[in-house]
Amino acid sequence: MKEVIEFDSKVTQKDLVGFKFYHKYHSGSGIMELLLALVLIVLCVISAGKVRYSYTAMVGVFGVFFLVFPSVELRLRAKRQMEKVSMFKETVSYKITEEKITISLGDITEDLSWDNIYKIKFDGNCFDIYITSINANIIPVRDMKGDAMDFVEMAEKKLKPFQVKVNKNKLRKKCDYGNGNI
């Protein structure tokens, strides 16, 4: 395991959309919204020819609306956020050690001690480092230059087991993809 991990990272709109989708559909409200859409679409199909056409059409439109609108809305919100937030416009430098994580953006540098980390999740493409239950730094694994497993090992040493939610097999597959230098 490396003692110091350094890399530069730039979050893309695709990364941000992935982050938003992951959290939307890993929450109770996101799952309920998806189930509602599916129930409405099934009701539309079942009711076809059995009730008035307007009822069937209305139920179908609402089902498609609840299925499509949240996805479109999340993408538009991510696009607006990419345009407004400076952290998404510039490259962020990270230096991770046993003592802290140093985050640099231009002339601004912030030290984040391991004690201040709420939790770390791996969503399949990025690490989400939560400072609070809703605020997170997004670090794409591709930017870590093969140091993703070392980062997880360091995090597991410094944090409690329930704070590090990383499927290591999934991470290994992501890191082994291509030449192993993701």
Explained architecture:
- It contains 6 helices and 8 strands, in the order βααααββββββαβα.
- The protein has 182 residues and is an alpha+beta fold.
- A hairpin with a 3-residue loop joins β5 (119-122) and β6 (126-130).
- The protein is elongated.
- The two termini are 17 Å apart.
Distance N terminus to C terminus? 17 Å
Average pLDDT figure: 90
Main sheet strand line-up: 1-2-3-4
Q: Which structural category do the helix and sheet elements fall into?
A: alpha+beta
Q: What string gives the helices and strands in order? A: EHHHHEEEEEEHEH
Q: Major beta sheet, specifics?
A: 4 strands, antiparallel
In short:
The protein has 182 residues and is an alpha+beta fold. It has helices at residues 13-24, 28-47, 53-84, 86-89, 148-158, 168-176, and strands at 5-9, 92-96, 100-105, 108-113, 119-122, 126-130, 136-140, 164-165.
What's the arrangement of secondary structure elements?
Blueprint: E1 5-9, H1 13-24, H2 28-47, H3 53-84, H4 86-89, E2 92-96, E3 100-105, E4 108-113, E5 119-122, E6 126-130, E7 136-140, H5 148-158, E8 164-165, H6 168-176
Parallel strand pairs: 5-8
Antiparallel strand pairs: 1-2, 2-3, 3-4, 5-6, 6-7
Helix pairs in contact: 1-3, 2-3
